[in-house]
Amino acid sequence: MSTAVVSRTAGKRWWWFLWGLLALGALATAAVFVPPYLVGGTTVPGLDRITPGYYTSLVIHAVPAGIALVTGPWQFIPRLRTRYPRLHRVTGRVYLVAVVVASLAAVYSSAVTKSGFALQVAFFVLIVAWLHTAAKAYTSIRRREVRMHRIWMIRNYALTFAAVTLRLYQLPLIALMNSVTWLEYREVYTTSAWLSLLGNVLVAEYFIVHRFLEGRREAPASTA
Ligand code: HEM
Question: Do 60 and 101 meet the contact criterion of CB atoms below 8 Å apart?
């Protein structure tokens, strides 16, 4: 077997491993955090139930956000895309509508949340970026720019995935609250939100540059 074949096989295994982690993280987060909102509950201790419309906005946000989180990973599997293009198109539309509904509901939750200004800024940056990347992904595929569509979808899903990394960053920080007495949950939440936003954007951009340069080296004329 040539070195190129060996490294391509290793690359594929690595891709599937990362995809598996991504899908598992997405499914687990949606399965744990979204269902309580379908039955009038929550996993957040002491959640504000007094501010009018806040809880309802969380329901309207969390359910479609969960749909986006769960449907997203399948859209990146090349074989599914090429074998079932109609399924890819329908799922893609469901995903984009879910992102739009979830972000519009999050506008209200972010405006009225009592979690502080720094967290509100992080959420509003996320909302604008989530809507902008979704619009770019949609308009690029309408113009048949497949490569640009893929790039914008990677950026968009990286933002969707902030829901997973936010909760992962919270785990060690919440544990730290036991030993660091001045650390409050509000600070843990804010730090995790900013880390997930910036970290996910950096990882997505690294991945895009890496793939893009690799693609140009191997197939300069390719559009996909
Ligand atoms: C990336 C864009 C997103 C933005 C801008 C966003 C924004 C928000 C905001 C503002 C809140 C209320 C927090 C508070 O009042 O302190 C919230 C809560 C929530 N979000 Fe998102 N969110 C996003 C993505 C997601 C995704 C993809 C999911 C899927 C699981 C999700 C699930 C939830 C849930 C379940 C809550 C209620 C709090 C909890 O139970 O943990 N969000 N989100």
Answer: yes
CATH number belonging to domain 19-218? 1.20.120
CA distance 188 to 171: 9
- Decide: 155 in ligand 1 pocket, CB within 6 A: no
Length of the chain equals 224
What residues does each domain of the chain span? 19-218
| Residue whose pair of structure tokens reads 């191997």 in the numeric block | 218
Residue range 8-31, pLDDT digits in tens: 788 889 999 999 999 999 999 999
Say if pTM beats, i.e. exceeds, 0.85: yes
Q: How many angstroms is it from 49 CA to the middle of ligand 1?
A: 16
Residue with CA nearest ligand 1 atom 15: 113
